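Late entry, evening session. Most of the bench is empty. Finally got around to the prediction I had been postponing all week. Sequence below, unchanged from the version circulated by S.P.
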Amino acid sequence: MSMKIGDKVRWTSSNTCKRGVIEAIVPAGSLPGDVGFPNAGGGGMSRDHETYIVRGRKLNSAGAEYGSKGVYWPRVSLLELVPVTGRGEIEGEGDRG
C-alpha cells in the first residue's frame, strides 16, 4: 500500500485505535531518525519496506480523540486511509465548534 505525506490514516495497536496524518516517509532499510523523527518507533529495527511516520492521537470508544498528539511509526499492514469530506475534514467528525 503506497501512501503520501498528508494522507489521513487510522490504525489499532496495543489495543488502542489511533488516527493521524502521515508526516514523513521512511525508505526501506531506514529508521525514523534518518528522516528527522528520532523518537518515533521506540528504537525499533529498520524494516524491509517503505513505512510512514504519523502524527496523531488516540481515539476513545466513541471515536473522539484524547490525549496529546504523538509521533508514531505504525506497521504499514495496520494502516487504513480515512475518508475525507470535500472540505478536507475527516469523515464523521463534522463541526465540533
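Two things to note before I forget:
The chain has a mean pLDDT of 87.
The longest strand covers residues 16-26.
Will write this up properly tomorrow.
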